[in-house]
Amino acid sequence: VMHGLSLERNPIEILETGRSISDIIDGKIRQLYLVGSEEPFYVVNLDNILERHLQWISLLPRVKPFYAVKCNNTTAVLKMLSALDTGFDCASKAEIELALSLGVKPDDIIYAHTTKPLSHIRYACAHRVNLMTFDNEEELLKISHVHPQAKLVIRIAVDDSKSMVRLSPKFGARLPTVRQLLGRAIELNLEVVGVSFHVGSGCTRSSAFRQAIEDARRVFDVASVLGFQMRLLDIGGGFSKIGDFQEKFKEFSEVINGSLDEFFPPVSGLEVIAEPGRYYVESAFTLAVNVIAKRVVVEDRANKCTDGAESCPERVMMYYINDGVYGSMSCITFDPLITSLQAVKKSEPRYCSVIWGPTCDSIDKITENYWIPELYVGDWLLVDNMGAYTVSVTTDFNSFEKAHIYTRCFYKNNKKILLFAGVNSSSFVFNMQVILIYSCCVLPYRQTFTD
Ligand code: PLP
């Protein structure tokens, strides 16, 4: 694995046994302090990705993962996954270009977008990326013009009503339209090799997979009557393993394995793939942000601290941190930020607080009515589980510096990777980030600001 990572091209620090991600964060904060900087940064624990992969192959042995690049396109992550022999789900020309530039073979890429620009399809053709999805007739026409040799996968709409982020309102052919679409593919002399679906990101019900696999079986049957010999089933993404999902992945795997065996018995010679994004990267990234400003306001309404700690109801603390909704945290608009405090004593007085991002827009709010001890300018907050839909979704709004990414993995003297569970693995809450008030090295800096 380490060989595949090609260390010359990826600035990855390999840790000696005994050092932890917390040590790295601590050291980084001290380094920044010495050079007078407070830039936000990520620490990436690559071992976490390896651990997830090992779980995947043990629980879903029939399903080859094609990692969804859109979820987090950090080079070291892609290299790691490529070294682990996953495939890649790319959604655009630039994502295909990135994967190819890292040495990924065209056959290990699925261009999984059903409404593609013509020029991107042309690019895929020129680079021998043949496998691609469609769900409408116009797409078939475009593909027949510029990539007639493509191996097509029909994406169907499925019940995603129990998922955090629904995708089927936008993508996927309805079952009653499938026969006509496949008929059109025949007229255009196009080859349709399989079926795909996506149950929605952050899927909460394993039954969604069972229903979708059964729906896919129906499409296979329709296709077979029309003369296609389909050989690929793509069960999409939607997996997670944090918070309430911790146990669910096992349950999902059992349901998926059972449904595959029922509707596509192994003797059918079917290739099964998936497009997991969130699953692989969600807990590998920890974000460190700095409190850059603070306002104390007095509010009329009576605020209540919910967990019984001593509270000071009249003052509302407004903290401004240097990353937010227009940066790494746009995901909180669909993944509500549920937080739990670490490193805070029960007895410490708490204040009703609002945490804002750095931009001049009031939408840029990370959380409110948040009862925490008083923070000071210069304090650091750590946000755990920040790997999915964070670094790949940042904008340039207000031109604030984007969080730098530092990649780490653990390495034993005997050159074997040591698995590491992550910074706060015992304290994940429902599906979301954990905010850790980084008290262990905050105090010396507080001194500096309050002196
Ligand atoms: N595949 C497709 C087509 C998607 O649109 C997405 C997410 O939007 C994914 C895969 C990855 O989904 P997840 O991160 O939920 O695994």
Overall description:
The chain has 12 helices and 19 strands. The termini are far apart. It has 2 domains: about 1-45 and about 285-450, Beta Barrel (Lyase, Ornithine Decarboxylase, Chain A, domain 1), CATH 2.40.37; about 50-280, TIM Barrel (Alpha-Beta Barrel). The chain is of the alpha/beta class and about 450 residues long. It binds pyridoxal-5'-phosphate. Pyridoxal-5'-phosphate binds next to α11. Pyridoxal-5'-phosphate binds near residues 201, 276 and 277. This is Ornithine decarboxylase-like. Keywords: Lyase, Pyridoxal phosphate. One of its GO terms (cellular component) is cytoplasm.
Please specify the SSE layout and strand pairing.
Blueprint: H1 2-5, E1 12-15, H2 21-34, E2 41-45, H3 46-59, E3 63-68, H4 75-83, E4 87-90, H5 93-101, E5 109-111, H6 118-126, E6 131-134, H7 137-146, E7 151-155, E8 163-165, H8 178-187, E9 191-196, E10 201-203, H9 206-226, E11 232-234, H10 245-263, E12 271-274, H11 278-281, E13 285-298, E14 311-321, E15 350-356, E16 365-372, E17 380-383, E18 404-410, E19 435-437, H12 439-450
Parallel strand pairs: 1-18, 2-18, 3-4, 3-12, 4-5, 6-7, 7-9, 9-11, 11-12, 14-15
Antiparallel strand pairs: 2-13, 8-10, 13-14, 13-17, 15-16, 17-19
Helix pairs in contact: 3-4, 8-9, 9-10
The structure holds pyridoxal-5'-phosphate.
Modified residues (N6-(pyridoxal phosphate)lysine): 70
Keywords: Lyase, Pyridoxal phosphate
GO cellular component, one term: cytoplasm
